[in-house]
Amino acid sequence: MRSLDGLPPELLGFDPVLIAATKELQYPPGRVLFRTGDRPRWLFFILQGQALLQRVTV
Known about the structure:
Blueprint lengths: L15 H5 L38
């Protein structure tokens, strides 16, 4: 089970079972995390940096 030590305060309110199932991942700038229409596979919590939502209109 993942330790609660070192977690950001925003995550301490989550259920410990959910915390135990988390992974810490790092993505390089410009990496696509998800696309419109794709089935959600992950819940992202951005600790540092930003996620940019880009809308493509035709």
